[in-house]
Each structure stands twice: as C-alpha cells, then as structure tokens.
Design a protein that fits this description.
mainly alpha
Length: about 110
C-alpha cells in the first residue's frame, strides 16, 4: 500500500510540475484543474448526474467527489478517471457520511 501511495503522490506532483494542475495535491484541485486532470466521460457524466439528483449533492460535494475520484485513479496508477473511480469515490463519501451521522447521534 505504501508503494501505491508514493506512486500516487508522484503522479500528482508530476501533473503540477507539467502545468496540468495548479497544485500538487488532489485535495486542493480547483474546478479548472479537475476539468483538465479528471475529465468526466459520458458514462461517468450520466452516473454523476444521477447521483447529484438522487442524493442532492451540493456543488461543493460534487467537487469533492471528483477530487476523490482523481485520487482513486492515481492509487490504481490510471492516467484517466473512469466510471469505476467515481463509484468507488462515492462509496468512500457515503461511508464518511454514515460515520459522521453515527458520531453525531452518539454525542
């Protein structure tokens, strides 16, 4: 796992050095950066539209989902963000929200 994280960080750094992104960190990619380095293909666009409508994601949550998708793709060593990366990112976000909800109820 450590090797995958190191490789993903290297990919992020190389994108920034090449001028493809304004930052070497996926967590701080802007919308413009995401449009360059995490393009949304047709199947992913259809999936994202459904997710946004069904779960009422805000623009901020949508951007966050795209950032996580880019990171998932980097961890796989994939240059492109594909539908499966968005699905996995959504699952990660769902788990995060479920845990937050459980924490809020426990307090």
């Amino acid at each position: 796992m450590r090797e995958r994280v190191t490789a993903a960080r290297q990919m992020q750094s190389e994108r920034a050095q090449a001028g493809e992104a304004s930052t070497p960190y996926n967590a701080t990619l802007t919308q413009l950066d995401l449009d360059r380095v995490a393009r949304v293909d047709a199947p992913s666009r259809k999936l994202l539209r459904k997710v946004v409508n069904q779960y009422g994601l805000t623009a901020r949550a949508y951007i966050r989902l795209r950032r996580i998708s880019r990171t998932v793709a980097d961890l796989e060593g994939s240059a492109n963000v594909e539908e499966r990366h968005f699905i996995q990112a959504f699952n990660v976000r769902s788990l995060d929200h479920d845990a937050s909800s459980m924490l809020a109820r426990a307090c």
